[in-house]
Design a protein that fits this description.
The chain has 13 helices and 9 strands. With about 375 residues, the chain is α/β, with parallel strands linked by helices. The protein folds into 3 domains: about 160 residues, no CATH class; about 70 residues; about 120 residues, CBS-domain (Roll), CATH 3.10.580.10. β8 and β9 form a beta hairpin. α2 runs parallel beside α4. It starts with 5 loop residues before the first strand and ends with a helix.
Length: about 375
């Protein structure tokens, strides 16, 4: 889902990361708050004051989103659901989960924690604003609190819409899941509503563009596309997870992988293996023991005239954990590792012995057959 991310800090054991697209939101919000929102709500202030309010409002938005996702994460951890971290991106933030919630109850509470936390912050800001006005505090301060109340109210209201993968959609899914005891069916209903909401947002965005609101219309279209695609991907993920549930890596692996010996010359490696099989990385074995891996990148730095007298063993390096998996591992773990690392092939290793190779192509073939039969 995300590209390259930058770690900012850790909070209660969760790493908070930011995707570069979030910077677009930061700049747009700071500019919008400084030039239109605060001048309209608190007229008559100095221009520099509006810019400081814009920056402070953007920081408050950042903190509100992090608090929202943190509450999701804390409830998830309470039920033993691993959270990889919190990532901020162009559409807000997300607590990243590798697994589905263990029960309908845990999902209900985890999903509800987000909107509830935003509603709490909104009410707290309203109370502080009322107290500030009673004490005669400066207008910039009370104006900022009004903005914090409104932005958190908007976060709570939008996220409670019963459209997956929004929090309200997860609440709906948990209720349907509890009723029918069928996670895939519940996800399908909630995802269909999410896809419909995305389509409606796209249509409204196009209408806004036709009516002359170009920027607002484009944003609605982009948000609609995101919601629709995210809802469909969420259903696909549940289907894949259930299709692979209980399946071991050993079922999908090919037991006779292509390997090379440490004594193989680099010339033989390139001519007989790389050009023939088109692999950029090959396992190096001594008998049946995996001693390491050799890559085309390592071979490429060796002058061609040395290929005949240099051997694979000289360039062999330890295989990364990103490239290996155990035969008793869950097939979904293999698919997740492929997705995270970009590797389409994993070496299956059992007690330092190379016993096979599992490929993304073989797993997708299995899933396609599942789709045909089900």
């Amino acid at each position: 889902m995300f590209g390259r991310r930058v770690a900012l800090f850790r909070l209660f054991g969760f790493e908070v990361r930011v995707e570069p697209s979030w910077l677009i939101v930061v700049v747009l919000f700071a500019w919008s708050l400084s030039t239109s929102v605060f001048p309209a709500s608190s007229p008559g202030l100095a221009r520099s004051t509006y810019w400081w309010l814009g920056i402070a409002g953007t920081v408050c938005l950042f903190a509100s989103v992090v608090f929202h996702e943190l509450c999701h994460s804390l409830v998830a951890r309470r039920y033993g659901l691993p959270i990889k971290g919190i990532t901020l991106f162009i559409f807000g933030g997300v607590a990243e989960m590798d697994e589905e919630p263990p029960s309908a109850r845990s999902e209900f509470l985890m999903a509800l924690a987000g909107p509830a936390s935003s509603a709490f912050l909104g009410l707290l800001a309203l109370g502080l604003r009322a107290g500030g006005e009673a004490l005669g505090l400066p207008r910039p301060f009370t104006g900022l609190l009004s903005y914090v109340a409104s932005i958190n109210g908007s976060l709570a209201a939008f996220n409670i819409i019963p459209a997956f993968p929004l929090d309200g959609g997860r609440v709906l899914r948990s209720v349907l899941w509890s009723w029918r005891r069928d996670l895939r069916w519940a996800t399908g209903i909630a995802s269909w509503i999410g896809s419909a909401l995305g389509t409606i947002l796209i249509a409204l965005g196009v209408l806004e563009v036709l009516l002359g609101n170009l920027v607002g219309g484009i944003w609605l279209v982009i948000i609609g596309l995101f919601v629709r695609n995210a809802s469909r991907m969420s259903y696909q993920r549940v289907f894949v997870r259930q299709a692979l549930e209980g399946e071991l890596v050993s079922r999908f692996m090919k037991p006779d992988p292509v390997t090379v010996s440490p004594s193989t010359s680099l010339r033989e490696l390139v001519e007989d293996y790389v050009y023939r099989y088109h692999y950029k990385m090959l396992p190096v074995v001594d008998g049946s023991v995996l001693v390491g891996c050799v890559t085309t990148r390592a071979v490429g730095v060796v002058p061609h005239e040395e290929w005949d007298r240099r051997t694979v063993g000289e360039l062999t390096a330890n295989c990364s954990s990103d490239n290996t998996i155990a035969p008793t591992a869950d097939a979904m773990a293999a698919l997740s590792k492929m997705s995270q690392t970009g590797n389409s092939r994993l070496m299956v290793v059992d007690n330092e012995r190379l016993v096979g190779v599992i490929t993304l192509k073989d797993m997708l073939t299995f899933l396609n057959l599942k789709v045909e039969f089900e």
